[in-house]
Every structure is written in structure tokens, then in C-alpha cells.
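Much of what follows relies on a compact textual record of a protein's fold. The record below shows the convention in full:
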Amino acid sequence: MFLTISTSGTAALPATDLGFLLHKHPDKAQKFSTSYGTAHVFYPEADVQRCTAALLLEVDAVALVRRGKGKGRGGAPDAALAQYVNDRPYAASSLLAVALSAVFSSALRGVCNARPERAAAPLPLRVEVPALPARGGPDLVRRLFEPLGWAVTAEPVALDTAFPEWGDSRYVRLVLESETLTLAEALRHLYVLLPVLDDAKHYWVASDEVDKLLRTGEGWLPGHPEQKLITSRYLSRRWSLTRQAMERLELVRLAEADDSEVEDIDNAVEDETGTEADTETGDGTETGEGPGAEAGEETAAGERSVPLAVQRREAILAALRASGAARVLDLGCGQGQLVQALLKDVRFTEIVGVDVSVRALTIAARRLRLDRMGERQASRVKLFQGSLAYTDHRLKGYDAAVLSEVIEHLDLPRLPALEYAVFGSARPRTVLVTTPNVEYNVRWETLPAGHARHGDHRFEWTREEFRAWAEAVAGRHGYGVEFVPVGPDDPEVGPPTQMAVFHRDDTEKEAKAA
């Protein structure tokens, strides 16, 4: 199999700088051993105006059979004698991608100490692959490469030029041209997309392939219109790995949209999760919220107090039962305590936990024992990643939604986006929102004056502030709202947690229907 990379230059910026960028001298023909054969690098042309580097991979057919045995790899998947008769020595595939990565590893990373400014700058590039298997045809080739800044020529290769009536094969002759990409970007595109088009990797795909994909796809894969197809094919359609990769790509997309780091988005779970008695429900970020949340505290009568997290959960369950809801969203589900409690009540027939944090969802799945759950019980629950700052069609059509200790973790300027996503777009019949009552903080003996209950709280509201916000939201979106205290209702400062119960006003819709 064969691939060439060409560039043009001037006296000031000679094309032969390609040799520095690839770390391969233009005056030498070099060869490198790979797991499945020998890779040769040579330069058919190399002068100031034009330079072409060629990568030729000689595949060891015997090694391919031996190493691929028992793995369903090593040949065209639609051939009965695939391990003996196949296109692997001739057509560009994952074999060529692996050789590309091994031979041009420094160039793939954009490293060039001799010409660092050239490595960082776009080059006039032309890439040719004479025989590329393309499952999806020339149209898919264009859909994969054109969004990345390539001008694409994908000419179908006839099955047999002597018999044109037989039509075209599944192979194309590929030519890519660009003046806006760096060499490293070009190599990363090829490393991922060559095996994607072939759709038949020669080696077993393990979990480390997710890291390879995200590392090589950095900067272009999160925003690619064919992201899902690329991810699925690159990971050999392994569902668990594809889901893991898509979740991590979504985090990257959200971080870029918010101009923040991925770590700042995926921060909803503490390293130590604590126990049920001293860990907050809802977004799963809070632990030990004062005396009401502490395990083991006793009242004056010597009775053990109920943790605030448990009181909050019981208040939410009571409000959901009173609303008659059967299909419930837990928005910002965190470690899954509320989802777990909902599953214990058969009146809740569908429970969906949503969180932006992959780590939180992983802990929730482990808490719920989803991998060992019976089929009937498992059909009642779903966990998926999502951000409440964006509308999501998956959230529509539910009876109720819960935002338990969630809103205070958002910056105030982002609250309108959450408001519209929940009340304007999803529009469940009932919405429950709980948040700390900052007035009650003076009752926490261990909380320094002026401090928030948790380091990630962006704000904490008084009862008046929360009521004003909730009533304004209800008025804008056609809901009624009532307020319920959670925890001991102190006559001076109120309860530790305040809960707003929103009910959608459907009288206008019912009048129109009548």
C-alpha cells in the first residue's frame, strides 16, 4: 500500500523543509520494521519548488494471518477466505494508519526542533492514496474530509477496466489538497479517517483506543458533522467504547462553548463520595452540610436526627407522589441517590438521570448496579449525559423534573439558559427546585460567617430572592408555583432548604381544545 505527501515552496521557504518536518532526510531511502511488515520512506522528488515524500508499506501476509487469527481481523470481512485472499497488502487501511503513526510519530505531534515555525504554519499540501477502500463511496469520503478544509477528489476504481459493465469497486483513488492545514493536522486526519473509511481494523480494539481517538482528534473531531460515524467505525462499532468516547467528546464541546476547561465542566463529583448519611443528593457535590447533614447527631431528647439530605429527598418524593407523576427527570442527578429512591417506588414507571459529569454518571451507574439489574427494573431507568444550559429534545414529554441543589452551582448569567431549557423547551407538567436558604447559614455552628455551604456554590439566596426568581420564571412560562420548607422551619431564619413546586398551567390549552 502506498501514500504520498507533497508540498511546494520558494527560495525563502523551500519545499525540502518537508524533510525536516517529517524527520526523514530527502536524500535517503529508509525502511522501518512494523508488526505486520516493512515501511519504506523515500522522496520521488525533492527540490526547492516541490518535494514529495512517499510511504510504502510491504505487508507480511504470514504475520497478518498469525497475529489476526481468532480476532476476526486480517482481511476483508466479506471474503470467505479472508485470511488467505484479501486486499490488505494493497489497499490503504488501519495497517497504513499504524505505519504512518510509527514512522512519522514526531510529525504527527507537530514536533520539529529544526523548523518549529514551519511545523506550526499551514502548508500547501497534496496527499495521494492510489487505492483506498471506501465503505460509503466517494460521497462519504467527501463528507469526512471536506469539513476539515480539504479539497477532495475521490475517483471510483473500476472492478475491471476490460469489463466496464461490471461497474465500480468499493475502492477510490483519493487526492486531498489544502493550503490551510499544518502537516500535523493532515497526518492526524489520515490516521483516524483511513481506517474509518476501510471499516475493518486489523487488530483488536481495546479501551485505550478511546484515548488515541480523542488525542488524535483534538481540535477537529468534537465539531465534525460525522462525529458519531467516525467514532463508531474507528472503535470497530464497539458500543461501550463508542458511548464512552461520545460522552468525552460532548464534554469537550461543552467546555469549548463555555470557553472553559474540561475539568471545570466535569467537576460534579468529589474524589471521596462519603456515605449516604453525610452526602448531598441532587448534583452529588456537597458533603456534610452543617448539623442537619451530619450523621450521628442527636437531639435534646437523645434521638438521632435525620440528615438534611434525607429530609430533602423525602420532601421531593412526597411532592412527586402528590403530583401524580409517573415519568420523572432528575436533572443534575449526580451520584444517583434520588434515582435510587425513585426506583424503590413502583408508581414511578420511567426515571431518567441527567448530568454533565461523566464521572458522576459512572458513580451513579455503580450505585444503582445497572450491570446486575433485572430486565424489568432496568427498563425503568436511564442515565445520560447532558448540559442544562442547552435545550435537549430528550427531555421533552415527561410528567415531572427535579433540580435538587443544582441551580446554585451555575453562574447567575447562565440561569436564563437553564430556565428556558427546562421551563420553555422541555416543559414537564411539574418542576421541583430546591436550593439552600442562605439565611439559615447562621445556624451552622461550623460554618464561618459569610461562607457558602459548599465551595462550588456560585450564589446562595434568601427566601425573598428565591421567591422572586421562582415567581418570575412561573410567570414567563405559564406555571403556578408554591413554596415548601425542607428541614426544621426556624421562626427567625426559615428552613435550611427551600423548595419551589411549579405546576404547568394548562387551562388555556384545554380551553382551546374545547
Observations:
- The longest strand covers residues 168-181.
- Confidence is low (pLDDT under 50) at residues 69-80, 269-303.
- The radius of gyration is 30 Å.
